[in-house]
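Our consortium's second objective concerns turning raw sequence data into structural hypotheses that experimental partners can test. To show how far this objective has progressed, the report includes one record in full. It was chosen at random from the queue rather than selected for favorable results. The single chain below, 285 residues long, was entered without modification.
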Amino acid sequence: MRICRFNDNRVGLVEGNEIVDISGVLDRLAPVKWPYPRGDAFIAALRELLPEIKTLRNTGKRFMVADVKLLSPVAQPGKIIAAPVNYKLHLEEARADTGIHFGSKVKTIEECGLFLKATSSMIGAGETMVSDRSDRRTDHEIELCFVIGAKARHVKEDNALGYIAGFMIGLDMTIRGPEERSFRKSRDTFTVFGPWLVTPDEFGDPSAVDFELKIAGKTRQKANTRDLIFDCKKLIAYASEAYTLEPGDVFMTGTPAGVAPVEPGDILNCRIDGIGEMNVAVRAA
């Protein structure tokens, strides 16, 4: 199943080139009062809503994918958890390129752990990434991302994948400089999720998935998740030792070698097998 959020916060099922509007399923969500619970209520209820979703797919209004504005599939992640230098070849290129490391020692993921990105930096595939610092190098970083579907703490690797609600493509846009990662990677529009959320039953095994980023038809990044240092299972187990994971939390699994600057006017074509592709535009401030 492929679930998207589009236009004015409509929810849809993606079927080929069409989207079936199933927004009526949101009426089944429990009412909440302040203080609102953390996390994403739709993701938290997703499993129990599946029968209603299947009913609505037969009656919902249909739109062409090309005619809608795709938003981030997750509306309210409590946390965006990101894995730094999680591919060996990217670690090597970061250490070799002063434009990336700015004279600082590039630590391994084992040494530096994970980092968090601001949820306010999040946009969807149909929105535009803003490159607003012409004095700085701003790079693209494509990543496989997944969304947590149930509350979890101290998860074991053996059953970690059972906590995943779905997978999506992510862009971890990055200004290079001496500041902390979270600061440089959390500017508005610097976290792109999309084009939709693919449930695990359709996506399959995340351990050997091809993905690629192109600009103007030229490959910039191309890799397979088999090359991850910490795979999806290990990332969940590792993070859940420090954080309580909650429905809607997003993991960005890390980017491979090939990071490079973007310029206003670029269109980033991002593809991950089992998910599809999205085209994200870059503009100046």
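The partners drew two points from this record. The mean pLDDT is 95. The CA atoms of residues 111 and 200 lie 30 Å apart. Both points have been shared with the crystallography group to help prioritize constructs.
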